[in-house]
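In this supplementary section we document a worked example of the pipeline. Step one takes a protein sequence of length 201 as its only input; no multiple sequence alignment statistics are reported here. Step two produces a three-dimensional model, which step three serialises into structure tokens for compact storage. The input and output of this example are shown verbatim.
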Amino acid sequence: MSFNKYKNVADVLHDFPINYFERNFIEQIPIEIDPYFENRLNFLLKEGVIFNSEYAICESIIYPVLVEVWRNYSEKLLLWSHQPLNYDENLSGIPDYMISQRSPRGKVVLEKPYLIIVEAKKDNFEEGWGQCLAELVAAQKINSEENSKLFGIVSNGKLWEFGFLQAMDFVKNIKYFVLEDLQALMEAVNFIFNASFEQVR
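The serialised model returned by step three reads:
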């Protein structure tokens, strides 16, 4: 069965002994936004058709934001788009984006640990978090490192929510971030990239 069988977080908790909590853990880390990136994003928001599908949201909003932050961490981290993630027949599928450790054997090798999972949803955050948490569980099992933090993001492009899985605890950030406040959003994304970077040996 694939990750999309999970329609909400409760479905994942039913299958796995995970505890659910909500608290604010995001600490915004300052980041300088490239004016070219910001101008291009504003152009797309003004002139483009970008909220009509999950694919358009991925390509026009989510991927560019991730790339802009990832550039600062590319020495140790690698950003993957629509790369299969398979643990077993119950935990398999294709997350929208994954950030993993960069392999010393080259950028074409998907190397564990997997660190961040990103799911794009047009509007259904309940389903988005069900899938994202299932993907985090799969990544944790593949990593075989329960004490590390694996971060998750669910976004419809306009609104961004954050969570993490550590051991058997899943924590969802209470505060969400919005594209309208690009600086705060980028600082929140920067926080999870930085925390993931620090976990890589």
